[in-house]
Predict the 3D structure of the following.
Amino acid sequence: AHTLEAAAALLGQYRAAQAEHDPADAGLAELVAADALAEGEPADAGARAEQRLAAKQTAGEAATEAAGALRIARAQQAAVETAETTLASALRALGPAADAAERLIRLDQTIRGGGDNLRKISLATYVLAARLEEVAAAATGHLLRMSSGRFELLHHDDRHGNGQAGLGLRVRDGWTGEERDTATLSGGEAFYASLALALGLAEVVTNEAGGRPLDTLLVDEGFGSLDPDTLEEVLSVLDELRAAGRSIGLVSHVAALAERIPAQLRVTPGRAGSTAEVVSGGVRS
């Protein structure tokens, strides 16, 4: 813009000077001669005339350059205006796509548990949390039996530190009426709470699979951490499941279990390796 204004001003000055001096050009020689005769200094008059001619020539060259610069500047200005028009049109066309892209980005962040998702629960975790809530409800029925009515399992979606929330469990203690973390359960309590969860999970999976049951359950160790009364409650629950048609396999070193389990596979370690024998009804085979 400044180049255009400067070039236009310079060209205007040249044209004004040209209009002023052109009428005198025709009689320049006569004026030079008359001035020389009157003053008696032809050399000085000629020098002044040459200076005027040189100045006019210089001004003409400058005007020519200014006109060229003006043409270039106008062409550049036209190109800039065209680019601005094209850019504005492109931005208007891009607007809806940019808005849609921003919405998709925010949705993606929310699905992943970030952005506007205040609970920081991803969509996958949310779906799993719904299933975990069902598992906890199904497990509570078994846990109440095993704990003589003391414990219930509850799902919660509180955050832990900076991690995602949604897959947490607590126990409600019927003796104190308070909720607490599952990590506060003793060894025996944690064992039958885990067993109750396994049974609850089997029931939920059965329902989700169209009623097709999980016929086999294998429980590995943990019985030694139970007191006699609790052990009896746990075995009663397992006996009910077995009576309903499920196959229950127990892995344990607890001697009391040998009296309750009619069919056993006893493994005996030895120097040459372990040996296994089937015991049914107290009779080895």
Q: What stands out?
A: The first strand starts at residue 151 and ends at 156.
